Amino acid sequence: MAVYDYTAKDENGDKLTGIYNDIDNVAVLREELSKMGYALVKARRRKNLGIRGRRIKQSEVVTSIYRFAEMYSAGLSITRCIEVLEEQSENPAFGHILADVRQSIENGSSLESAFGKYNDVFSDFFTGMLEAGESGGKLSEALEMSATYIEKRMYIRQKIKSAFTYPVVVIVICFVVVSCLVAFVVPVFSKMYDQFNLVLPAPTRALVGLSVFLKDFWWTIPIIFVGAAIILRQLFRNPNIRARWDFFKLKMPILGKLNRMVIVSQFTRTFGMLISVGVSVIRALEVAAKVGNNHKMTEITKEIQESIETGHSIGGSLENYDIFPPMIIQLAIAGEEAGEVAQMLTKGAEFLDKDIDRIMKALIVKLEPALTVIMGSIIGLVLLAVYLPVFDYMSKLK
């Protein structure tokens, strides 16, 4: 199957352009257009974009949704808005996706189903907001809220990544320094040990053995890393192992609290925004669980759905689970009493985001000196193992 850009004309001679997916050849394309009352003028087969070409940055998605909201608010039709976004896109893969979405809408699909085909790009939250906005006449508002939400998520992810950049850099530098010492310095000293017939202590023997291994079997290292990556990937595809890992992430030392806060913040913000545009509570909870992307959170959400369906309040249902901070529970209860659950939950997510930022900064302040000490200790132990025989030999000379 291939993708074709085509130009056709109707009975009045008016031309239109579009994209057709999953067509074997031009003859089939001509036949399909003929059924709709169009005559094919020209067609061009699109090149396969490949996996790399299909990488879409979230920043591009956010910008496009903001533009979509602005153009729609200004009175442009939905298909015209998407067509403009398609023309302005600098990423061919994203332009192809927008073109396919536009064509689906022109063929009668709803916004939700048209964008839902590319769930890995636009997310369940976005399609849920589109569904609610389209059915409730709040599409412009839903688009703006979606862009704000995705931008907020992107910001938090970037903050977390930047916070852990320093530890990763320190670990990499330590690994490189130790590898250089073992690969280039230890062999020089090893020759000297042999010349002087020195008796090597256990740490030095281990270091020399490692140096010999790296020299003779260095090619096994990339194989080990690739093999480990493949094994881990296969393991995490197992639902039971993935569920245990998700549970461990919530309970792990030091980072467990931070993981819980991030998941609850995403869950609460998603839930609040969805119900604010008219999505049902049960559907909003379902989408919020998917956004949380944690097996334990999914289980909790199913139980909350059952609790609400049996007549319990949102705040009362959240209260049964210690993953939700007391602040979120109290805000949910207050929101139900005042009829402003969505606003209260969104405020709760904002508070959690501030706490996440504060905890990350405090964690980095503690990690920096600890990692420096650990790196220095490892390098110091390697150098000590290198010089131990020398010190022993010098003491005998005296």
What does it look like?
- The protein has 398 residues and is mainly α.
- The protein folds into 3 domains: 2-48; 56-163, Up-down Bundle (Receptor-associated Protein); 201-398, Receptor-associated Protein, CATH 1.20.81.30.
- Helix content is 77%, strand content 6%.
- It is built from 18 helices and 3 strands.
- It has helices at residues 26-35, 50-53, 58-73, 78-88, 92-106, 111-116, 119-136, 139-163, 165-195, 202-217, 220-236, 239-251, 255-276, 281-292, 295-309, 314-318, 326-338, 341-397, and strands at residues 2-9, 15-23, 39-45.
- It has a 3-stranded antiparallel sheet.
- A hairpin with a 5-residue loop joins strand 1 (2-9) and strand 2.
- Helix 8 (139-163) packs parallel to helix 18 (341-397) and helix 9 runs parallel beside helix 18 (341-397).
- The longest helix is centred in the last third of the chain and has 57 residues, at 341-397.
- It is flat and about 105 Å long.
- The N and C termini lie far apart (83 Å).
